[in-house]
Every structure is written in C-alpha cells, then in structure tokens.
Amino acid sequence: MSAFRAFAAVTGALVQREALRFVRQRSRLLGALGQPVLFWILLGAGLGPSFRPAGLPAGVSYATWFFPGTVLLVVLFTAIFTTISVIEDRREGFLQAVLVAPVPRSGIVAGKVAGGAALALGEGVLLLLAAPLAGWPLTAGAFLVATASLAITALALTALGFCIAWRMESTQGFHLVMNLLLMPMWLLSGAFFPMAGTDLWLEAIMRINPLTYGMSALRQALGGGGGPVGQEVPALVPALAIMAAFLLAALTIAVLQVRRRGTGGPA
C-alpha cells in the first residue's frame, strides 16, 4: 500500500469512527449545543438591559451582538468533547493498536482532527442558521464566508485540543486544562465583550489570543449580510490568515507529539 493510500485509509477510518461515536452518544449534541444557547438566552436577557460595553454599535442589543460568540462557543465545546476521545481511546487500548499499525502517524492526527472538526463545524452551522432570529441578516455570501471561517476555527481548536489531550492521563485533567486555558481563550476573544474600551493589559492579551481572530473573522463574515459588526481588528482576510497560521502550528505540534511519543500518554 502506498504512503498516500495508507494516509487516506487511516484518516477516513478515524473520521468515520468519530462520526459513529457521536451518533451513539447523542447527549453530546445536547451538551455542546444546549449549554451555549442557554448562555446566550440568559446572558442576553440578563445583561442586555443594564450592560452596554464600549465599542458596541449604536442601536444594537447585547443579545444580538453576543450571538456570534455563542456560535463560537458551540464550536469550542464540540471540539473539546471530541478530543477527549484521545484519552478514552488510550485507556481502552484502541490508540495503541492504531499506533502499532503500519500507517503514517500524520494520518492519525489528520483523522482525529478532521473528524472532530467536522462535528464542531456541523453544530456551529446548525446554530448559524438561526442568525436572522438573533438580528443578523444572513445572505448566501455571508453564510458561505462565515462557514469557511468556522471551518478554520474548528480545525484549529480541535488540533489544539488534540495536543492537550495527547499529554493527559485522565479526562479530569483535561477538563481542568479546559477551564484554565480554553474557556479564558473564549472569554478574551471578543466573544463576551469587545476589545474596545478594555484596559491596556487586557487588550494586549486579547491581541495575542489566536481565538480573537477567529471571532473577528466570524463577526465580519456575518456583517457581510448587513449585521452589526462593530470595531473588529484586524480585517477579515488577515484574521483568517492568522487563524490558518495557528491551525498549521497546532497540527505541526500534534504530529511531532505523535511521532515522538510512540504509545501516547504524557511526557
């Protein structure tokens, strides 16, 4: 079997396995989609009447402005849930069986990341279709650009989750890292409050946060349909380029980890 065929075979098999796992665990759909929507409803209704952060476009409710951040949170939650399977596969012995098979290690990374990202993108797009109900006009062009933006972000977050999960021995440890790293990344991405008007130290953190650019790209993509974009930094194309660079870096680290640690597990 050629190297390309082996790569395609292991990638396809792992993508299919992630899809089957998702279908059999339907509670994951409720967890990944339901909690962010609940956040949007409660925070939008609770903070909307009294909370108006600097940089919010005039005449736009907080609930409307917060909607793209909710979509991003759905993608983040799904990416987290799917990469937990790396830890579960190691505990069940499946990962070790794959690692000793005569297949490229890069195919293992590609399969796990592509499978998880596809699920994250699917749930994100499902919520994205509700954008008109949240006050964001959704034209065909805006939908396509927003979907492309979400796809890059989903791949990047899943690759990052893979890098973290590969070094974890337990799901409890992974959840701890999620709470200390991934959730703050979302909170400081411009999803919860705009960058404009924040303290200089907080603005500096937001500018070096890669997820800030995924959030910016999504808002601007939706704004192509006439939505309330606000003051987004940087422009759409540079934001997508930065997210693509972050994706490439995360994938590179993931492949190096798998090649260095032949049996998986923490260093």
Write up this protein.
The protein is mainly α and 267 residues long. The chain has one domain (3-260). 75% of the residues lie in helices and 0% in strands. The chain has ten helices and no strands. The chain has helices at 3-24, 27-47, 62-92, 94-100, 105-128, 140-166, 171-191, 200-208, 210-223, 236-260. Helix 6 runs parallel beside helix 10 (236-260). 45% of the residues are buried.
Give the arrangement of secondary structure elements.
Layout: H1 3-24, H2 27-47, H3 62-92, H4 94-100, H5 105-128, H6 140-166, H7 171-191, H8 200-208, H9 210-223, H10 236-260
Helix pairs in contact: 1-5, 2-3, 3-5, 3-6, 3-7, 5-6, 5-10, 6-9, 6-10, 7-8, 7-9, 9-10
Question: What's the N-to-C terminus distance?
Answer: 32 Å
Rg? 19 Å
How many helices? The count is: 10
> Runs with pLDDT <50, length 5+?
263-267
What spatial form do the alpha-carbon principal axes imply? elongated
Helix content: over 70%
| Sheet of most strands | none
Q: What is the H-and-E element order?
A: HHHHHHHHHH
Q: Number of folding domains? A: 1
Structural class: mainly alpha
Short description:
This protein is mainly alpha-helical and 267 residues long. It has helices spanning 3-24, 27-47, 62-92, 94-100, 105-128, 140-166, 171-191, 200-208, 210-223, 236-260. It has one domain (3-260).
